[in-house]
Amino acid sequence: MRKQYAIAVAAAALSAGCDDEPVTSTPAPVEAIGDAVAYGIWTPTGTDTCPATVHDQYSTVGPDGLRYPTWHPPVDPETGCRFGHEHGRDPAGSDLSGAVGAIPFGYANQHLVEGGFGAPRNEDHVGHKVEWENDLLMSVGGAGSAVLSVECDVLVKMHQGTHSPDAFTNNLHEVAYHIRCSDGTGFSATLLTPIGTPGELVVGCDRGVHLTAGTASPDISPDGGGKRAIPEARCIRERILEPEDGRPRFDSALRESWEISASLRRENGRVLASFNPYFQVMDPSRFYDETAGSGLARPIDLCYRPELAEADRCESLAGDSVAWDDPRSPFKGVRRFVDINGNRVRNADGPEVWYTDALGRNGRTEPFPGSIRQWVALRDNVGLDIGGRVIGRDRDYDAPGVRAPN
Predict the structure, then answer these.
(1) Could you give phi then psi for residue 169, rounded to 5 degrees?
(2) Cβ partners under 8 Å of residue 259, min gap 6
(3) Would you give the distance in Å from CA 356 to the centre of its chain?
(4) Which pTM does this prediction carry?
């Protein structure tokens, strides 16, 4: 795939009339003129051993000239200090890293209000998670059946915090999604996407049950497709505390699935690109219980029930009492994977570069206040559905010092 991209980029450069500067999905880096809201918000707490000054060295300058945090390892290789959180897979190994560049965490959040939305939506630092796969053999479905396959490189970043009550009510979350396929399908999208209904969650073990969990922030958040399926006290009772066969099933009870229906749209509403990934977590450090404060309950507390002390997920504690944010806790959001579904483009008439607001809407060919530069290949694959693969299923991002909140 790497060689194919080199050819494609060279061809794009020639068609643009410049044979020495390849056309990529992101503009060249610019000099920093200031700091984004998302930059510098992390500070060490608890067992973290890295100072904020070391953490802030992991930054990138966005196309707007502002400095943003970006991916970093959970342990600083120079000092050996620990950050206490991780951001998933190192994007440097992705075949798309050269074209995409470093991912600025919080870029869409930064431009939400400037682009015309009536309230800010800022997210914490630790929830940004990266996943990718090269040369992924994807099925191409037409009329409900797989008709052929293509190879795709996929690089995604989702803000999916699984430690706080935020996602119980708040449905706007930042996603950066990059895909290039051998059939010419491809796009790079950065946006805040509404997942499900604000103020509401879907019960993880019964997708037909919707619960009102509170008021979203911002309270003008739009409805979105998909859903945030989150473990709830009923799931804990039925699958851990009172299973019919007596076998507690932590993975089944605690699994979170954020099912996204996202798109980039032109000013007239026509879809330029759409994608429907499912971001899944097997070991969140929270579940929803309406009887608890803010609805927030902790799975670690289950391990101190006598009947669960020797359960698979709890036995490593050996009877020790550890807090929910202790690195020894088995619940810290490090076991994740992504289902890659429904990658569609409708942009044969171009251009490749579009500018949308932070919600991926109002796409125009020229920048405007608060706009985000998006890239969509000159391609139409309407009626086809590129997807059907999972990335990251067997990965575990635990590392020394990693703990909730993560």
Answers:
(1) -120, -30
(2) 195, 226, 227, 228, 229, 276, 278
(3) 19
(4) 0.91
